[in-house]
Structures are given as C-alpha cells and as structure tokens.
Design a protein that fits this description.
Bound molecules: S-adenosyl-L-homocysteine
Number of helices: 13
Strand order of the largest sheet: 1-2-3-4-7-8-9-10-11-12
Helix content: 25-40%
Length: about 350
C-alpha cells in the first residue's frame, strides 16, 4: 500500500479533492505527519472520522524500521531496514551551528567509485520519497531534535534517483512540511552532467556539491567510473551554467588519497580549474576502509595542498573529521551489517 509520506503537498491536496473534501483540509495532516510525526492515523484527533477511515484504506503510515544505532560524541549513525529487507543508513552530526543529517538516496550505488564502500554493493533500487523523508523524520523523532540542515551524501547517487529527489526537495523545503530552508539542503553528485543542467533549471535555491576528487581526466578516469562518460571539462561547463543560472556557490569535494591525487602538481591543476569561479573546495581526509588498498594522505600533505590553494586565493577548507570511531565511511555500516 502506498505510504502517505510518498505524497507532496500537491498530491495530498489533490487526494483530498478526490475524496470530496476541501483542498485546505489537507493542512490538518501536515502537523501530524511532519511535526508530531505520528505513525498511526488514529492519533490524528482533529481529523474527521470518515476521512481517517478513508486514509486507512488508501495509505499506510509506517515509519522506517530503525535496527541499529552507533553513537559517538558528535556523530550518530542509524541503520534502517526497509520493507523489502534492504538496509540504508543515515548519519546525524552535531555542529556548533546546529544539527545536520546525511541521508542515503539509493540502496547501493552503480557509480562504482574505486574508493567508496557504497559502490561495492551495486544498486538494488532507488529510495522512494517516503524512505528519503523517513530518514529525517525517524532520526529527528528518535533523538527529539530539530534538524537544521540536510545533506544528501549517504549511500547512492541522488541524480540517479532524480524524480524522487525533486519531490524530496519540495517536501523538505515546504514551510508546511519539514520546513528546512533551501540553503540548508545540499545535494551531492559524482557529476551526472545532464542532471546538473536540469537541476540548474529548477532554480530551487538548494546547494550543489560535486565529488570531483581529481584535477584531470587521467586520474579521475582511474578512480571514478563516471568520468568515462562525463569528462571533467563537461562537468566544469555544466557547473559554469549552474552558477550563471542560479548565482549559487558550488562546493567541490576532493578526497585526499595518498600518492594518487595529493601532489603539488595536482593542487596547481585544481587551482586552474576553479580559480575565479564561484566555487569552494572542501578537502576531505579519506576515510580508510578494510576493503580497499587506498590510503589517506598524511596531515602534512593535506596541509601543503591546502596552502597551495589558499595562496592562490581559492576558498578552501579541510573537512573536520567526525565519526572516525564509528563505521563512518560512507556505506560502511550497511556493508558491515550485511557482511558484504
Ligand atoms: N553519489 C554522491 C553522494 C554520495 S557519496 C556523490 O558522489 O557525491 C558522498 C561523498 O562521500 C562523496 O564525495 C564521496 O566521494 C565521499 N566518500 C565516499 N567514500 C569515502 C571515504 N571512504 N572517505 C571519505 N569520503 C568518501
């Protein structure tokens, strides 16, 4: 049965019209679903009995099943089991400036990046809207916290689940629903070029991050399969279009991998790619996993890479590491749970 959390505001209003109710009556449901986060229609005490009965025949309202929580001081990880026995994970991070959640967009991933745990497990399916939204609802309810920002950087490639991500953006940013400002939502892609154009044209105000991870095609071809289809020049062209269209700053994510992409030469090449553009570079110390030989660049290397960018007037930060004690690398918790 269709889960009610699969509906956007328009869908719910149309549903109300279809059952002979006034459109604005849909409003009553929002606070039950997104504020009080109830998991039973019977708890919706101010909704007409006949409507409740209709809702019960047409929709389920179950929340995701939380099967495991790992805790650290600033980071918690949550493992969810979905209705078909698949697992996905979310991460809650407490920063000085608020609480953010990292959500998964697919079960597994087909992008096949050579450093990423998520990609070792091929895509099983896309997450439905209710499963995307469900991660936010469940974690927020379980921890009794308000979520201030959301990053779609968990398992999966969000632009490979574009239709549901578009609906997710609507639900997340709608003041009547989850109500998180556009600027507090970030979608991260490995660089599916046609979707970057489409995303730009949507003009949602939502942030875009790109997993670049290499300053030239030779290196990127080796570590990211997606580069065989979409070369760096094409990605950069698409980003130029995005920036022109939205006037929003793009985040360039760059994992630091020892001996692969961390040389001074790489840093200078990266400078040439981003210089003068509305972009900022986030250097990410690689989270080593047992399944890959890849090593994290040492702190000295990361610092000198950073210094080269900085001295060339590039906006750059080194990502603060969180959750190192947990199975924190992207997709690790799920992989460990399934013993894959
Ligand atoms: N498919 C999307 C979002 C999911 S991956 C994308 O590629 O952007 C989220 C980010 O985590 C990406 O930048 C990815 O490259 C990075 N990542 C994956 N494995 C990692 C690891 N072991 N250590 C550090 N970052 C990792």
């Amino acid at each position: 049965m269709n889960n009610i959390y699969n509906l956007t505001i328009e869908d719910l209003e149309n549903y109300f019209l279809s059952i002979g109710e006034k459109k604005f009556k849909a409003l009553q449901l929002y606070s039950w679903l997104y504020e009080k986060k109830v998991n039973s229609f019977d708890l919706m005490s101010d909704v007409k009995k006949t409507v409740i009965e209709r809702l019960k025949t047409d929709f389920s309202i179950e929340h995701l099943k939380l099967v495991k929580v790992e805790r650290d001081t600033e980071v918690n990880k949550y493992l969810f089991e979905l209705y078909d026995g698949s697992f996905v994970e979310s991460v809650l991070m407490r920063h000085d400036y608020g609480t953010s959640i990292c959500v998964s967009s697919q079960v597994g991933c087909n992008m096949g990046c050579s450093f990423c745990e998520s990609g070792r497990l091929k895509k099983v399916r896309d997450l439905a809207l209710a499963e995307l939204v469900g991660q936010v609802i469940c974690v927020s309810k379980y921890e009794q916290v308000r979520i201030d920002s959301i990053v779609v950087m968990g398992i999966g490639e969000p632009f490979d689940n574009f239709e549901n991500i578009k609906r997710f953006i609507k639900v997340v940013t709608d003041p009547k629903m989850i109500n998180i400002g556009q600027r507090h939502l970030t979608i991260s892609t490995c660089g599916l070029v046609p979707k970057i154009y489409e995303f730009a044209d949507l003009e949602t105000g939502v942030n875009l991050a790109i997993s670049l991870h290499a300053p030239n095609n030779e290196i990127r071809d080796k570590i990211m399969k997606v580069n065989h289809g979409f070369k760096i020049e094409k990605v950069m062209e698409a980003l130029d279009y995005y920036i022109k269209k939205t006037n929003r700053r793009v985040t360039i994510e760059y994992i630091m991998l020892e001996g692969i992409n961390d040389s001074d030469k790489c840093a200078h090449e990266l400078v040439n790619l981003v210089k003068g553009k509305l972009m900022y570079v986030n250097l990410i110390p690689y989270n080593e996993t047992t399944h890959f030989e890849l090593k994290r660049s040492n702190d000295f290397k990361i610092k000198s890479f950073y210094d080269i960018l900085k001295s060339n007037d590039i906006n750059v930060t080194i990502r603060k590491e969180m959750g190192g004690n947990l199975s924190a690398a992207c997709g690790q918790l799920r992989a460990n749970s399934e013993r894959l």
